[in-house]
Design goal:
37 residues, alpha+beta, two-stranded antiparallel sheet, elongated
């Protein structure tokens, strides 16, 4: 499957979020951010 721009943006966001907290990506493409430090 080809990757659309939204997938690239989502991956970049996930990489940044992983530095701050835990992230759960759902099958729908939504990201739940758990900011536990």
């Amino acid at each position: 499957m080809p990757e659309g721009p939204s997938i690239v943006i989502l991956r970049k966001a996930v990489e940044e979020i992983h530095l701050k907290g835990k992230t759960v990506i759902h099958a729908e493409g939504k990201a739940d951010i758990d900011m536990e430090q």
